Amino acid sequence: MSNKEPEGLESQLNETVRLLMTRTGRRQVDVAEVIGITRASLSQRLLGKSGWKLDDLPLVADYFGVTVCELLSGYAAIAQADRLPPAKGQPGQTRL
Predict the structure, then answer these.
(1) Are 65 and 34 in contact (CB under 8 A)?
(2) What distance, in Å, lies between the first and last C-alpha atoms of the chain?
(3) pTM of the model
(4) Cβ proximity of 29 and 48 under 8 Å
């Protein structure tokens, strides 16, 4: 197992969270609040300058209405499985 693989997975996770935030209209401060960190700390994670904690993944996945496996599989996999959360402003969005 090369050192590049975990970095690739973390990079994919960062991209997936950013894309889910964009789709749902969520802000960094919203996601940070769910996992109990500051917006600045979340920003560092999304930029790849700080790592995710495993305990945070179920909270983030639940927030976006996906499973941890889906979150780690990437945005395209979530879309292909027709499991994307409703887009901002579309019916079915329940979180404020």
Answers:
(1) no
(2) 42
(3) 0.85
(4) no
